[in-house]
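Typical record was shown:
=====
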Amino acid sequence: MSEPHEIEGQVYWSHDEGHAYGHFHTYDAFLLPGMAAPRKLHLLLPRHAPAGVRLPVLYFNDGNTTFWPGGLAMQSWNVAQTLSEPELLGSLPPHIVVAVCPVDRDRDYTDVEWAPERSCCGLREYCRELSLIKGFVDSHYPAASESRKNTIVGSSHGGTAAFFIATRLPQLFGTAVMMSPAFWVATGYDYAIEGSPLAEAGLILEVAELLRSPTQRPRFWLDWGMVHHGGFHNEVIERLGMLRGRELQALLVQHYGYHLGQDLWVEEDPEGAHDEASWGRRFARLLPVILGVGASEQSLDSAR
């Protein structure tokens, strides 16, 4: 049964849906001073964790699709089911998942004007709000505060936002997971189709010094799907995701000194489409890498 509780004026519902991995706290209207509007948050907490140990945390953009069907396509990553699979349940260290739902997705996850009549440019504000959310989680849950134990996860626009967040808040997030990221929005949609170089985008240039620093920069998981048929999202969006993803990989390795298998992991998914089912499937594969279980260059040889 769901039960209401309160932490410093923030009301949440504690509910257990029978997943082997853990149970949920859901905040329907989480609002701290400094936040522009309430947000829904879902926290998945492990059932079994050592007492007194601060746990790694994975923060998800598009939190309305992390555990249950939502978003435009009404699909889900099914993260709770994935974490409850026996092969993962017995091999991964316990961690917390925080799913942050968007208020205005187009605005929350973009920093430049990118398409006519679409909202934009609220990503810096979202960064600030996410830092407030993380502060709350660090204070009231057994969450590790250090950046190397905090990961920001996103797909499509949320994947581009994950890169932005980790490079603007490297002291908070040590890793960004970018699945089928929409880096084509970095210079505007029309320019991306015409092939405007990502290297010249403010998204990259603003943090060039950070990206050159092996001791300060975040780690990245970058992937995309190779299914480029069956509708606009695959034929155009996922194809652009592939093109920009390859461009970003080359830029990070050749210009900024990232090393595959050490601070950059890249996967081309031959069966990947631009949908939650593909992202959820790849999420199961990246977890051991992100959480430091078997994270080696050789472990991803077949994924390149």
